[in-house]
Amino acid sequence: MTNTHVILVRHGETTANHEQRWYGALDAPLTERGQHQVQATGERFAQRRAGAPVDALYVSPLPRARSTADAISAALDMEAIVDEGLREFSIGDWEGRTYQDLIDNEQLWARWAKDPTFAPPNGESPLSVGKRAVAAVQALTEAHPGERIVLVTHGGIISCLLDVWLGSGSGDWIRWDPHNCAVSELVWDGERWHGEVVNDISHLPPDAVIEVVPSYVPEMEKTRQD
Prior knowledge:
40% helix, 15% strand, alpha/beta, 6 strands, six-stranded mixed beta sheet
């Protein structure tokens, strides 16, 4: 069986990312830096178009992902197809709150570290998101055997996929947290997944790289030590 290549791209930085707020089902516009990230990502695909042709481009329905996919679509001269399964991880009634607020008042990441089935009110759990994302991407993989497809999606979705396919699948998904416009390439050989490139940002110029560590990262490190 010929290998199928799945390229995962996270959207560019949004105002919510900059403010360290959880926007899953909600949407926020790209920042100026996010727009620069998106432009550089489009250039990456344009430069590699001849050597690594892409057969299909899919995108989450959320505007921040679609804005990112527009640059890739132009680079590849290919229409982006919306796939609902690529929608970001929703935390329901807790959407729009800062990460620090969710740490201080809901102990969200500590809860998830102990129980990946925990879902905020009217929201999703990491386990359910992982199952949803895997089902969506597996279906696209089966629809494009032996081809190379690009999926423009979100940090939560990519983290869950990488944890299931390249990690332990034990719920430690946040350690895979991708940078905005990071590119990961996974290969399906018919039996298992392999990671050729994971969270690569070599195409981003220095002024487009975010150096601030989200507040939930040290929180997750603390829960591992506990």
